[in-house]
Amino acid sequence: MTSLAALIPIALFLGLCGLAAFFWALREGQFDDLEGAASRILIDEEGEELP
After folding, report:
1. How far is CA 15 from the centre of its chain?
2. Do residues 25 and 31 touch, judged by C-beta distance below 8 A?
3. What's CA 37's distance to the chain center, in Å?
4. What letter would DSSP give residue 48?
5. CA-based angle 45:50:51, to the nearest 5?
6. Cα–Cα separations (whole angstroms), residue 37 to 14, 41, 43
7. 11, 19 Cβ separation under 8 angstroms
8. What's the confidence (pLDDT) of residue 24?
9. Distance between CA atoms of 24 and 18, rounded to whole angstroms?
């Protein structure tokens, strides 16, 4: 029972840390361009010479 009393605050603290990290990432714009990186890999780079 004493271990449960110690684990509940630890779990709440880790959950709050995860929630704070999510809101930080949301405010920094990490989720603004979800399709850009996926489509940039398909675009050929300019400036390459053909053999």
Report:
1. 15
2. yes
3. 14
4. P
5. 140
6. 30, 7, 10
7. no
8. 97
9. 10
User: How far does the chain reach from its first CA to its final CA, in angstroms?
Assistant: 73
Would you place residue 49 in the very low, low, confident or very high pLDDT band (cuts 50, 70, 90)?
low
pLDDT score recorded for residue 33: 83
More confident residue, 47 or 33: 33
For 32-41, letters b (16+ CB in 10 Å) and e give eeeeeeeeee
What is the model's pLDDT at position 50?
57
pTM confidence score: 0.60
Q: Which long-range contacts (CB under 8 A, 24 or more apart) does 15-21 make?
A: none
Q: Which two tokens stand for residue 11?
A: 């779990």
Report residue 28 CA to chain centroid gap: 11
